[in-house]
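Dear Dr. K.,

Following up on our conversation at the group meeting, I've run the structure prediction for Hydroxymethylglutaryl-CoA lyase from Paractinoplanes rishiriensis. I'm pasting the input sequence below exactly as I used it, so you can double-check it against your construct before we proceed with anything downstream. Let me know if the numbering doesn't match what you have in your notebook.
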Amino acid sequence: MTVSVVEVSPRDGLQNEAAIVDTPDKLALITTLAAAGLRRIEAVSFVHPGRVPQMADAEAVAAGLPRARVSWIGLVLNERGLDRALAAAVDEVNVVVVATDTFSHRNQGVDTAAGIAAWARIGARAREAGLRTTVTVAAAFGCPFEGAVSPERVRTVLADCVAAAAPDEVALADTIGVGVPAQVRALAATAATEARGIPLRWHFHNTRNTGYANALTAADLAGATPVALDSSAGGIGGCPFAPAATGNIATEDLLYLLHQSGYDTGVDVETLLPLASRLSTLLGHEVPGQLARAGLFPPA
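The predicted structure tokens came back this morning:
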């Protein structure tokens, strides 16, 4: 059984940190991630530098990416972001549509319907340019402003996104880390009907210590169907526009869980372990990931 792990620490990891990591240090992080065998890496976000200053060097990072074996992903929220992504020659774009109007306004300055319309334009242009596309339904498990998000709401948003522009992949995001496995099962069933035949990707946060249970549930539900799981080295990151949405699931911890559960990821977890200490130094605080402290078992 195989699971694809999508590394998001250079983007979703660093964007919520108070420390601004310089471009050479970002590229050193990215080089280690690629050396470990990660083959899809969300490296940059093409957003307004005034709103997310941690991503102000997106073009410089993109220019320094080691090309070839890795598919490089850029997050875009609007057509200006797509223009920058195309100029930077990323391989994929990830476009976010937020499931609730209030959070969508906080995150992107538009309501959900306008977000879907933007996705339609971006998706069509990206496909014409030969880029792989992902549409992510954010806050699919809960919203920090509107509370619980019903499966019916997610179903409607997901169906509208797919109808607007068929993506190469759909992602469901627990942006604030409130989800539990029962919700994963419900939303997997929703995706199976509303995005039939489209590969599924999941984005979990461990804010309430449910992220790893959710990730394993998603992998188990997929069976032989391709599935991708987002994670962030050291467990760093979160959304700067969602209060208390800290803590992606840590890549090294996720890999340990998947490998010990019989899944093949193609990633060498041992190569990633030194990153926790390096990130702690760069960010000025200990990172949440556990495996670098506890070590592999059985010991190497």
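Two things stood out to me. The longest helix spans residues 112-128. The mean pLDDT is 96.

Best regards,
J.T.
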